[in-house]
Protein 1
Amino acid sequence: MLPSHIIYPVPVARWEPNTKERLVRAALDLFTEQGYEATTVAEIAERAGGLSKMTFFRHFPDKREVLFAAGQEVHSQILATAIAAAPETATPLQVVALAVDALSATFTDDRREFAARLRTVVAAQRELQERAASKHLALAAAATEALQKRGVPELTASLAVELGIRAFDRAFDQWADPACRQSLADLTRRWLAELQAANAALG
Amino acid sequence: MLPSHIIYPVPVARWEPNTKERLVRAALDLFTEQGYEATTVAEIAERAGGLSKMTFFRHFPDKREVLFAAGQEVHSQILATAIAAAPETATPLQVVALAVDALSATFTDDRREFAARLRTVVAAQRELQERAASKHLALAAAATEALQKRGVPELTASLAVELGIRAFDRAFDQWADPACRQSLADLTRRWLAELQAANAALG
């Protein structure tokens, strides 16, 4: 099974195949089984295949970051790359649409079950919700900066990005329901269209 | 001197005059002098006039909340009340403008110096920045709910509120500069007009 939303496959050193991913999956398993508070870094490392705490801390600064660190970096990169690559004639909103398209395309449906569990764990813990909000801000900042590099004024860029990330978040929330049968990319496009219409109506 | 931004005078029991405010001011003093990490709850309580840790914990769940808890509650209330009281004919954006007007009017210029110190402390600490982001979300949720009670659809409400809170945040950041000579209310109105124009141009 592939990793999900917050988590994204990242290159790992040859001598430690998939350690990072194994830690993430072990953490989510333990958080689901016994709760976030009750789980220690040592337990996560052990569950990930008899690893040490030291190995854990080579990959993540603390227990909370195990669910966020890799995703934040990789998702920011996906957004920034797509924004830089968009056609020169695209409007800010069109550029953002392409960027969230690129991001949601990386979430294939075999990742839905993992995403659903992740959503449940995050929803149960204020500390994780705050980290999720801070990830939201970091993605928005990265995308806004990328748009500004195209010459879009900062205010316009930040508002266009806000619509895109809201569309992605709402779509993700629906998609991460095991009963959902739609693709994340389709849901994101639909939400972006709705948000755009509501926004235009604000005047 | 009066309390500031995040902090807002709240009713206190007669037998404990201003304990909450004294704790907040003592905390900000200590965070400024010796840093957030290095400051303990016991020190804050002591500095607030020889209070005990137990007294601190009667008012705040932890060290971090001392800068946020009271403000979040009172500011949410100010926004919700102003939204409910807005004229029936007002558009969602006009309602939001009245609400952020009511909020910024509570920050008189004698609170600027306190706000400036608060801004410096928060900017230096990731944990506090995350809490500030989470306060932003809580205010937005309260305001969105109040708008929905007026019959505004959720998507429209949340976008109108986002513009208002962004205007307030940007204005506050300028206002909390000791060199600033403008009122927070004026700055907020100006930012809201700019954000609205940028948003309308998105199409």
Protein 2
Amino acid sequence: MHKLTSAEIVVLFLSLGVLLATARLFGEVARKLNQATVLGELLAGIFLGPTVLGALFPEAVQWLFPREGSVAIALDGLTTVAISLFLLVAGMEVDLSSMWRQGRAAIAVSISGIILPFSVGFAVALLAPDWIGHEPGPDPLLYALFFAAAMSISALPVIAKTLMDLDIYRSDLGMIVVAAAVFNDLIGWLTFALILGLAGMAGLHTAWPIGWTLVMTLGFTAAVLVAGRWAVHRSLPWIQAHTAWPGGVLGLALALGLLGAAFTQWIGVHAVFGAFLVGVAIGDSSHLREQTRSIIHQFVSFIFAPLFFASVGLKLDFVANFDVWLTVVVMVIACAGKILGCGLAARWGGIARREAWAIGFAMNARGAMEIIFGLLGLQVGLIRERMFVTLVVVAMATSMMSGPLIQKILRLTRARRLSDFMAGRAFVADLVGDTTGEAVGELSAAVSLATGLDARMIAARVLERESQGPTGLGDGVAVPHARLEEIRSPVVGVGLSRGGVDFNAPDGSPANLIFLILTPRDDDGAQVEILADIARTFRSDEVRQRAVEVRSFTEFLALVRTQGLAK
Amino acid sequence: MHKLTSAEIVVLFLSLGVLLATARLFGEVARKLNQATVLGELLAGIFLGPTVLGALFPEAVQWLFPREGSVAIALDGLTTVAISLFLLVAGMEVDLSSMWRQGRAAIAVSISGIILPFSVGFAVALLAPDWIGHEPGPDPLLYALFFAAAMSISALPVIAKTLMDLDIYRSDLGMIVVAAAVFNDLIGWLTFALILGLAGMAGLHTAWPIGWTLVMTLGFTAAVLVAGRWAVHRSLPWIQAHTAWPGGVLGLALALGLLGAAFTQWIGVHAVFGAFLVGVAIGDSSHLREQTRSIIHQFVSFIFAPLFFASVGLKLDFVANFDVWLTVVVMVIACAGKILGCGLAARWGGIARREAWAIGFAMNARGAMEIIFGLLGLQVGLIRERMFVTLVVVAMATSMMSGPLIQKILRLTRARRLSDFMAGRAFVADLVGDTTGEAVGELSAAVSLATGLDARMIAARVLERESQGPTGLGDGVAVPHARLEEIRSPVVGVGLSRGGVDFNAPDGSPANLIFLILTPRDDDGAQVEILADIARTFRSDEVRQRAVEVRSFTEFLALVRTQGLAK
């Protein structure tokens, strides 16, 4: 029996542990900087791999992430499974029905946003291959097709995330973008699958005529999206009725994903395509419960995806293979084609100018998908290291610029949240006073520490506002507040009172949770947004109860943040 | 670079998909038969492997589950990771504080339940090795130590599951058993780790003195359980406050588990021990949110565990290596030692006779742990195939007999649930009538179809009961019912009425969900238990709304079952 030795198991666990920990850490830092986590995960791999640590400590890195032998094979198997499960989840996020609902506009944006970058990419790669550093080797036609497809892809997960962050996911514009991205994903992966099939790179069936792989791919796509989708939708209630929950559905989803992946790999397109299609078929059923979806989603997003994207960074030296000129050319082709293609189609579809360009920039984000695309192209030999690094950089750059540019074009402001404006120094775990004046005084002193403002001035202004009408919300929550010229961004002081302080709440209950909210005088929205966030966060009895019992600012912040995100 | 070829990826995905699907299927069948799912998962592997399919179609099975080459290595890596994550979850279920709360009684039961089977096992293995088929090879002392440890282990997950199924998990008896099993798990794994260390089988540090591995093992255990536990508890609020939720904690838990596993593997005890200890340290923190715990738990229990246990069944021919005599001897040693050890200690601790023996039988369940134990022993060469098969059979037999015997000893009956007594034929998706009499008539006809009882008799008895007092519960739910001599077990007819039927509910609302409940006259508990289950299941507005909208019995059953189990 062929097995890992004890020493190899040590290396396998150590490399997985280091990879996961570093990827999650860098991913969190990226998130703090308002960037996609995938950017951080990729940088974690680049940091651990030959680009940084591998250049400094070649032997140690070679030992921890070997490129030969059993551990390399086991890691390759694990990351291949990881990326297929990531595509399964990406497929589950595809909502076919919303695509049809948005109808004509979305499909026009999508098709135009595919055709324009595809045509430009194809023309450049075929007619001026030197511009994009064509190297001898692969068939020029295949190379051009691959490059064109790489220019035309979008990344639904990154796009959806950007829209959610900007709070426009559920707007008309958001729905059109998501529907267009869904269609783009489907067509993009199908095109890519066909190119891989054409290339016959998989080399499993050299005897097959080229047309056969195409027929198999299209047939499988149709079978999964029509018959498969129907069968899953029909069988889910039976499975939920007769098997352990959520284990029955979890097991079914993953087993079908693995089998679909095996099939598409076998016909010569990549495993990820089968997993993606199975994901679409499963995710589309209205019988799938939210909790099942979220277990798969979170485990894959936070464990498998970081492992995969970090492993991409390990593969080569991103500095040595970076080519500025190539990157600029590819970036221009990618952005111009996509933004113009989508934007113009949106304009023709009767969408206002600003919104139309916002759609263009939203669709331009390529994120994880372009990276996977590039990696598979590299693996089957369609492209070289330099083009791979270029595609990764383009993927990251287009994703990073998408959010800020949409925000600028649409002149959006984000709803302010409580957790953004609390501070450790403005937190009083145990208020001593039991009157409104005393409590406001203590909190004003704390806020003064955090801001440098005069404590007596704060207290006076807050109590002046209080005299115009009480700020007790009931259920033990009070929100004394004031608007000040002296500050440029909101500040919230938080005080907990075990005994309770009377803030004249309508239900007569004394306040145990007291939020002193100061907002800039010229900011009309901040006060209302923060109040709404407080009301939402402390809606349930249980959360209020736990809030009063915390003993430190960190615990309080943890409660607010996990509560704010929980369903 | 050493990578999987395209053909190998096909086999890897296909084998994982087939393994997972078969394991889940067999696991569900086991569950239906009131057995531990691990039994089904193991049988799935035995079915797919050399014992059944491999004997019939050796070439196909050899192709799908190769024993040599890259796919075998990738599968070995995956299942090694899977079992370590399973132990991480098992560790997270260990509740150290409940162990201390139960105190003396639990620890007495546990220690006595370890020492007696350990001593008997050790004595037999050393003095009469022929009884248990000792084969030349390993050091007799190590072999005896290993066999003794295998006799003394319990399996917390199986034990907890059995107690929950019997609804005595939260009883005094349940708490003592769980606390004793926690202690038993800790000591059992520590002993096992020390034996592996003594054996030096890992062979990584042949130059190390034996004592060194022991010191490292004990030192690591103490460090993780004291310093590690403290550090995790202190840092969790910070992580929940400052990272994506639940991704931050998920990533931390898995990364620490992998690193702990790497460390224990490195010092010469197995990776699973490190993962288990890290799980204990993490699971013990009261800051760990239930949702995080449940994501890890469910993904590991329903995906990684089935893959691992099915892969155990693939490893060898369970029929050819089955030895009746050996199994009987080992079974007697294991059961006698454990049941007497625990039962006598419980009696001495002042626990009543029936309860004391119930504790003994509960602690006797060995389930998954004994299988993992045996597999590791086989892998490091401490035991041979015949003993491994024996240990697996003993693990299964002790787990299977545990529940029924406790139920018998304690004369327990399980609370009856709505879903056990509904039937497709007694379900009316759209009641026509809009009076109490008409609705009861339609439901009686349906129940009559399902039971063969006379419809008019049922309707008459139900309406007679109805005349003594209305059965509308309010919120659109009504529970007309009767107790009949004619039936031996409860029957529930379910009718949905879009228009609503007046059952004189206290809130005046017409009933849309009507349950016609018939119970045996001599069964005092059934009616109340089923009523309580209905009230609990349809507590929320959302569930009642969804219930009225279902179109088939299967959908209704799915709703009831997923609702009943959801938090």
Protein 3
Amino acid sequence: MNSFGQIFRVSIFGESHGECVGITIDGCPAGLSLSPEDLAADLERRKGGKHKGTTPRQEEDFPIFKSGVFNGKTTGFPITILFENKNIRSEDYTKQRSIPRPGHADWVAHQKFGGFEDYRGGGHFSARLTAGIVAAAGIAKKLMKGLNIHAEVIEIGGNKDLEKGLQNAIDAKDSVGGIVECRVNGLPAGLGEPWFNSVESVLAHIVFAIPAVRGIEFGTGFAAAKMFGSEHNDAIMEMDGRTKTNHAGGVVGGITNGNELVFRLAIKPTSSTPKEQKSLNWDTEQVEKFSIKGRHDLCVALRAPVIVEAVTALVLCDFMMLEQKIPRIIE
Amino acid sequence: MNSFGQIFRVSIFGESHGECVGITIDGCPAGLSLSPEDLAADLERRKGGKHKGTTPRQEEDFPIFKSGVFNGKTTGFPITILFENKNIRSEDYTKQRSIPRPGHADWVAHQKFGGFEDYRGGGHFSARLTAGIVAAAGIAKKLMKGLNIHAEVIEIGGNKDLEKGLQNAIDAKDSVGGIVECRVNGLPAGLGEPWFNSVESVLAHIVFAIPAVRGIEFGTGFAAAKMFGSEHNDAIMEMDGRTKTNHAGGVVGGITNGNELVFRLAIKPTSSTPKEQKSLNWDTEQVEKFSIKGRHDLCVALRAPVIVEAVTALVLCDFMMLEQKIPRIIE
Amino acid sequence: MNSFGQIFRVSIFGESHGECVGITIDGCPAGLSLSPEDLAADLERRKGGKHKGTTPRQEEDFPIFKSGVFNGKTTGFPITILFENKNIRSEDYTKQRSIPRPGHADWVAHQKFGGFEDYRGGGHFSARLTAGIVAAAGIAKKLMKGLNIHAEVIEIGGNKDLEKGLQNAIDAKDSVGGIVECRVNGLPAGLGEPWFNSVESVLAHIVFAIPAVRGIEFGTGFAAAKMFGSEHNDAIMEMDGRTKTNHAGGVVGGITNGNELVFRLAIKPTSSTPKEQKSLNWDTEQVEKFSIKGRHDLCVALRAPVIVEAVTALVLCDFMMLEQKIPRIIE
Amino acid sequence: MNSFGQIFRVSIFGESHGECVGITIDGCPAGLSLSPEDLAADLERRKGGKHKGTTPRQEEDFPIFKSGVFNGKTTGFPITILFENKNIRSEDYTKQRSIPRPGHADWVAHQKFGGFEDYRGGGHFSARLTAGIVAAAGIAKKLMKGLNIHAEVIEIGGNKDLEKGLQNAIDAKDSVGGIVECRVNGLPAGLGEPWFNSVESVLAHIVFAIPAVRGIEFGTGFAAAKMFGSEHNDAIMEMDGRTKTNHAGGVVGGITNGNELVFRLAIKPTSSTPKEQKSLNWDTEQVEKFSIKGRHDLCVALRAPVIVEAVTALVLCDFMMLEQKIPRIIE
């Protein structure tokens, strides 16, 4: 299913080289002032082509409100936002069709959808669909005043000096992975539940919806597995729940404890490496050498922070509404 | 919400020191032969007290079928399974009540539920509820013949020699974390979808429902963030999708590709360390020294594998039913 | 699926002649005082055998709280309530097994579940499962102070003189149908939405879950189809939305308008009539004469009002929680 | 929520006088050939202005596929269909704004959404949104070969002679209600479940999503409440479940029994009657006389059949997919 959320619920649709990509947001309170300008800054961040190592494909990425906004305010009904696809070069993909690209969804899509999938530019698998997610998150962010969500790349190709990490890849004429860290401040205690509705569960769920994510850890994460309990435990120091350390990353028992929410993601290297590769040719049934053409990011991690912030905002907004911390009418 | 799954759906209930813990499984096909013996082996594995480093609390853990089974077979209607709580020593917890235990849900539960939560033995937060999950998974496993799900601890306290890792903790009189790895063989290609219903999303969701899990990674995981694309890409070698390497861990584009499914979890050290700690006393509003009493695992990671297998089985069974790979009547 | 509700969510399980029937309520706020006595009056009303025309089967119907209640108050976690089955005479049903009873689910259950269904006493289809629904509704009613939900039989066998309608059936040695009307006072305006979450949609959904219901109408209902618009329209007379007439039955555009909520249900005659009938014998594949044995209501409509009130309470409670009209902690 | 369905799931959006109305269909199998022409016949039937008593508003109602269709076939991913709004005369509504129209959602919408709702032409409440529903149903119908769903008006203003019933309203210069009957042939036995997923529950749910529906009855319906059990019971005559009579209307125990599915709906008279009415003026807080302007149907029941067929198709398609009676890839 292409929907997510319980009260503040998003549904995505569209293909990379089809007419458009888009999103519908259901459950947004009425009365929130909303214009394309509110979404512009994050949509601009999401775009490629701005810095070294990102794809030169340039879409206008202008959010077209098709419903749910009236006189500049949300109506309480579904908000559908479209992004038209204009800057398309599908021929790159048609040529490539006989060899399912390693690391890409070509083979699984073909196997699962019987060849009926729109393979151009990754079709529905394309990261272009995150335009809708970033737009929806712009609304979520407006609903959560006082919350600060910040994600950034903290490592490229194992290198904390990001310039150097990227330069290594450029020198190697190869793509490269990275680590993204997200921190949220200003979050109330009491969001989430133990078990299936834990904050970690729901965040991890949506984070793995982002293409190229291969791992997530909260707080100290994998390093916690190497620690003793007396080191890892965060001593509570104040009546408001503030702890001395924050190994938990702000979530205990599935519930936010009012401390900074912290998690990190592993982003794999872009599958579309400029390097020559070997893989199976479907038509000849032979393993062949080939090279990938098209416009691609060298390091997709560089484009991930705004998307990570976006999915985080969607999840937190939904939790806030479940806890009645956002009213049904904004005035 | 305490339910999970779309077609094969489980709902958990109960408290550690209440009358019982239990689970209801909705959506199970009719006609599957089912008896308590089918669930016995995994329930036995789940129990503590068997090896060094696990809690000496011993419950009988006998699954009582309350509904949905007739003449030894499933009826197609909800199966409710109860585990009675007998071996309870709540006084340990009452004494502790004034100091919310670091790493435990005491503080967040109190904050969120206004003090009405059942705090005895962790109440609804207790890992004892995994008895129901393991039982439900026993049913899921019977529905998925030919599938092999295997999880094991591969590291304790940073040590791949598990005996040594555990001995370090015993020597330090401290609890310790660990890494659990899960591998699934025999899985068909084509389970899952891109975006919100990706195999990684749904697995990560349920895995973080397990208490003490702090991270998850698929395939090469966090190490992928340090790699070049040409290293990480798995070349497809056969028409059935088999790849030369398996850095993807069996999932590409959110969809299983028929290769081995591989993921690893970071398990934090047991919060109930035997070590003396400092934390806030709610009544005195002072930070005080204290020690935790009660029966606890030194390394909860040791008890995790059977639970990790269980949640994996639940998720895969649901995906299999969505793909019509399990019939509505088993004959 | 055997679950219903978005935030205040119930899940039913059990069989008529199995170990028990029961329900789990998820999403109930913490802090509500709750004891079996709170549920006793409605459970007593639900029982048969009290008046002419209802089954003499007598169950104790004592609600056993298995989870979610601590120190006499709800904890905010799932509340599971069991009703043990004690007064069972399954031999009546075993004898009957070769002829699927007309009006009953015997044939469809056998066809759908391949003969694995628990057929004794209707199994999971039995109205005995409404014990759980009535219990859950007792909780919902406590959460909605100031709301008055009242249902009653207003017609038996086409007769508004209920005694006479029932006597006709007794004289005819036959079962008989009836009409139940439900009225809710004190409901706030603003519950529900147009389209799929309309108050009528959700109420109708759950009302048809009650066995034997064959129709539902809101306000003037089917009679509205014979009217002119100028007759049917309810003129708004007051700023609080009160209307001169109430043909709408309190719901306009799917949303409550603050007037009395009114709907009526058609209940079919009990399928287990004492009259001799003809139907197919599965074993002989011949149409044969037969008579139904067992303890049955002559007019199930007589037992419906408390169940109709119950499902109404469940739906309204969920709508109230969606609109943030019930807090997460009751103090 | 503006979504409906479990596997074959639709989400509607849009407003009567906004940019568009539309629908997204998620869960449609891949490989179904699909073009606007497939949807044309039913969309044409849905349009007003064709016969006496329907609104002269004429929209082109051309379905624009925005996603999910590639090379003329469905891809297995969300299909979004838009209908642009062109033929709009909003000034009719602006003038009317001070008096909430009786029978319409004006008052409840204003109360619930704080005045932020798009009131033009009923906004999101408008029957214009059924264009999307009819389009989605066109897809569902293509997936269910061999199924015949037919709805028709069987009574207008209490008159089975439809011409006469309509003429009475025209003569009275008033709007009028009617009865719509829907019959489905070719349906397999075994769809649905007892309780919350009964065929009656889910059909009633979606049927009450249609504006102006005030009642629904299955089979003999309300008349069953006047019958004896021996009259109402449908004797099973054949091993395939065929019954002598069909008072049940094809559903027993919530499950289809393979006989014709039959249900009837009460449709209220169009709220926008040409007659002068009295109601409250919000601005003056006085009850005033007023008349409704704008283009409206005299008898909305006349436009209902195609919509009733549509929602029926959506529900049945979802049930068929749950029962694995429609494959995931159509070839």
Protein 4
Amino acid sequence: MSQQPAPRLGLDIGGTKTHGIALDAAGRVLAEQVVPTTRGAEGVVQSALDAADACLASAGIQRRDLAGVGIGVPGQVDHLTGIVRTAVNLGIDQMALGDRLAAEFGIPVAVDNDVKAAALAAAAYLGATDLTYLNVGTGVAAATLAEGRLVRGEGNLAGEIGHIPVDPDGERCACGQRGCLEVLVGGGGIAERLAPLAPRVELPTLFEAAAMGIPDAVVEATRISTGIATAVQLVVLTQGSSRVVLGGGVVHAAHGLVEEVRRVLSARAAESEFLASLDLADRVTVLPADYPVAAIGAALVGRWVADPVLG
Amino acid sequence: MSQQPAPRLGLDIGGTKTHGIALDAAGRVLAEQVVPTTRGAEGVVQSALDAADACLASAGIQRRDLAGVGIGVPGQVDHLTGIVRTAVNLGIDQMALGDRLAAEFGIPVAVDNDVKAAALAAAAYLGATDLTYLNVGTGVAAATLAEGRLVRGEGNLAGEIGHIPVDPDGERCACGQRGCLEVLVGGGGIAERLAPLAPRVELPTLFEAAAMGIPDAVVEATRISTGIATAVQLVVLTQGSSRVVLGGGVVHAAHGLVEEVRRVLSARAAESEFLASLDLADRVTVLPADYPVAAIGAALVGRWVADPVLG
């Protein structure tokens, strides 16, 4: 009987769905399954187990065959203890998610913030050790990998850029501030502003509608592209990121968004010698929409326990 | 004859003055001298040599007695090669400053960006390995030390936050953009806006005048304190900084500024549960105004060559 290196399981637990993936030791996808997420601490545990079991059944392996499990969750995660705090979208106030799932699985479980997990997958995909992954989905956050290590800051806080205000006259954000990046370019704010315009103007075709000159579309497209451009500029100037990978639901839903963000950055460079020297537009990249960056990232969080190079 | 460990020399080369300091091996100040800076490549070299020689004469030591020389300069500095680029305030476009000064001194010379140098001195003063030094002077920039290492990014770019726009309707910045942090809270922008109000409203007493309700003072004091508060929030959310050290000419010139920045951060926390959870006001600290943070930092840049722990 040949001894194969053990496979790993990654679980990206989002507000609406939990995406499980099983990878072999070389990182190849063995199975992938998506289940709806039930909110609340017990619901999240059950959703994680359901996604895991569905994945394992599909790959024909048992829980005890796994080398480890990695979890990505939105919210403040202490990656050292596996404790999750204020994961608003999951309905979790505070929970020792790592310990709880380790007890269920009977093997080590590592937990990290979902955007930090995605940065690991982006780095693996691109073969890079230095990049910032900028997630523009329901939430807006970034994660930077410098010399192969995640920039974490105190309490793993680094990268919570969604609540940096960039417009003093902007709309009120759920966090209580005005004009946060998240209210400007996050999925929630966009959906609210586009709702009255549908079906004339919708997110997938927003940039095409703007190119055709439909005034409402121009306003919203400009808002989103300039907001994301500002976020790119912000992470490059703060972290010195050589590459900014755009990801998240908004980026993949809106056709032409990435090109428009690059165009805004180039236009700004034309007005500013300083910005021109930074080549911001050239630093922007995007992964294929069908690359399961969050789930693969979750599986790599697991690997962190064994492989500090990726931590 | 007893063999003393060799002293180090630090030179902070600013746009108007060059501040030299000689430290013994334990970091104690042996001598300090300030000379005017002559702009341009040759002027800067001569200013550095003048400040160094004045320092050495005052300490009674020779160039050949030094273990090394460290230089802090405003501008884009490749700390690995000692090449300085676009140091606008020094009138230097590009120059191999490290090599040039090493040839003059006959000993190793290390060069770094002046704000990164100051972060090293702030860390030494506070006995900290994790902090962000936020310089609010003519320029506005930050430098973050994480686990005892400077966050550098590609090309040592990290921390150039002065050119992040925070107000779309803000004034035009010298860099070509609108509403940059630097035009909002940097010394140049402040001086320009206060000039017509003097002597009724001046920077040293601005916050006292604002407290008395003088309308022009209220407008400008609010602008500065909210701008710096935004910069603090920006670096904490991006880098996860546990401590933000405010420094630079504006911070030390304006009485009551630091307290007002803390008050703004506390007021924001009262409006936002998310910000409240971060205790931003408590992260803000300041060094004594008479601590020569930039010159001592420059001397520590020198130490980097021998002591990678501080690099």
